[in-house]
Amino acid sequence: MPGTRWTRWTARVPHVVAVLPWILASAAVIVLIFLLVTAMVAVFGHDRYAEHGPGSRSEAVMVPGVPVATTSVLPSPSPTRSRRESGGRPGDAAPPAGRPPAASRSATPSASGSPSTAPPSPTPTRLLNDDDPGISYRGRWAVSRGRPFGDHRDDVHYTVHDGDSFSFTFTGTGLDYITSRDPEYGDADVWVVDAGGRPVRQQRVSARADRYLPQQTVFSVRDLPRGTYTLWAVKRNGVYFQVDALRVRG
Questions:
Q1: Model pTM?
Q2: What is the DSSP letter of 117?
Q3: What is the rounded distance in angstroms from the CA atom of residue 135 to the CA atom of residue 141?
Q4: What pLDDT is attached to residue 27?
Q5: Which end of the chain has fewer CB atoms < 10 Å from its terminal CB, N or C?
Q6: Residue 144's closest CA among 44, 243, 216, 234?
Q7: Residue among 107, 239, 76 at smallest CA distance from 164
Q8: Which of 145, 178, 192, 161 lies closest to 48 in space, CA to CA?
Q9: CATH superfamily of 124-249
């Protein structure tokens, strides 16, 4: 009987050997299908951030003169009256008391005593890329370069962590915050404070859109008395929060 069992087993070996290539081929097809599905998800899965650089631990942001917002309610409005009360554009800070707005000051008389008729020179502007050394990033930020989506200089700084922030100190009369809009982007709290830390403008902005829209101005402050100001922006929700460029108005 033992000899008979051995004979039956050895008789099955050729069948097993014959089936083995089919088994290996089936396993290879399954692996190939898995790799193709993974590649399609990577291509069509809305991943616009190919580079993920290391970052530091996220920190709570303390804006001078402004408490950290812990809910969707913004800090109390600035005591400075808005231009809506004084007949100007809503949301813009009014000039300090005792100083007339820049647009209402008379032109300096010429040597002959008649008013100057020369047209005012246009306000100079500077467009700064997201990698400008004057921009300070706090939290776990990364950089995405070589982007074919129409971003300024084809790169952005971005983060996925709520509470991460950036700040920028500038001298001029205004500033535009430029980023992209997208269904996966959320809200951010933005402040502008003067050199003394007093709030000049504060606003919750949204970068949501039905589709990806590059180089969108989501926050703007203009017509400030020329001076030194600091802009702070803090990610509050959404998947991505990014910086593409800042436009400084002189």
A1: 0.57
A2: -
A3: 12
A4: 82
A5: N
A6: 243
A7: 239
A8: 145
A9: Galactose-binding domain-like (2.60.120.260)
- What are 47-100's pLDDT values in tens digits? 556 544 434 344 444 454 444 443 333 333 333 333 333 344 333 443 333 343
- Report residue 26's pLDDT band, with 50, 70 and 90 as the boundaries: confident
Residue 27 is encoded by which pair of tokens? 């396993």
* Torsion angle in degrees (nearest 10) through CA of 94, 204, 48, 50: 90
Segments making up each domain of the chain, as ranges: 1-42, 124-249
In terms of Cβ atoms closer than 10 Å to its own Cβ (0-12, 13-18, 19+), residue 168 is: buried
How many other β-carbons are positioned within 10 Å of the β-carbon of residue 245? Answer: 22
Distance of alpha carbon 44 from alpha carbon 34, whole angstroms: 15
With residue 2 as reference, give the H or E element that holds it.
helix 2-44
Nearest to 226 by CA among 106, 91, 95, 98: 95
Element (H, E) at 43: helix 2-44
Each residue's pLDDT tens digit, 142-176: 999 999 999 999 999 999 999 999 999 999 999 99
